[in-house]
Amino acid sequence: MTSGTTPGLTRFNTSDESAAAAELHEVCASSAWGSKILAQRPFATSESLFEASDAAMAELTADDLAEAMAGHPPIGRPKPGDPTSSREQRGMAGASEELKAQMLELNLAYQERFGHVFLICATGATAEQMLAALKDRIGNTPDQEREIVRAELGKINRIRLTRLAEHVEEGDNA
């Protein structure tokens, strides 16, 4: 983790509010989460940004979590033309047709049971690991699952915030 201010973090800290809000919406679709992060700018370090994200995630209501989850496509079906979605779901790319069919069937059952997509921090996970997690979690209570989703969103936000903080634009002095 970066301890000092990076070019990406400096750019984020000094962006106008609408540009910073748009960047945060790409990290997490919860407007409450984004507002909490915006209100704390500027961040001295990436770690302080991550801590603010974790604190904001912990405060999200069930409705806020639902809004955040609405920004995520189902596992196995990344958003067309979205490089972030494709990168995060890379583990599904080489999956067998049988595994993809199982994932689709369980995704639909999960969505029917909980009312939202199955959400997992897919970065670095294999298709088999994601399928195993889905099989394991489908038996959870809605309360258990909401807290697991909160934790998974927190992991996803940290990965995406790391990319935001480390992103170097043309003309930045790195």
What does this structure look like?
With 174 residues, this protein is mostly helical. 63% of the residues lie in helices and 0% in strands. It is built from 9 helices and no strands. It has helices spanning 7-14, 17-27, 31-38, 46-59, 62-69, 83-88, 97-114, 127-137, 142-166. Helix 3 (31-38) crosses helix 4. The longest helix has 25 residues, at 142-166. The protein is globular. It starts with 6 loop residues before the first helix and ends in an 8-residue tail after the last helix.
- List segments where confidence is low: pLDDT < 50 over at least 5 consecutive residues: none
Structural class: mainly alpha
Tally of contiguous helical segments: 9
Let me know the largest β-sheet: none
Strand segment count: 0
* Broad shape: globular
Radius of gyration: 17 Å
Provide mean pLDDT, rounded. 88
- Output the helix-strand order: HHHHHHHHH
Q: How much of the sequence is in beta strands?
A: under 5%
| Distance between the ends | 16 Å
Q: Helix proportion of residues, in percent?
A: 55-70%
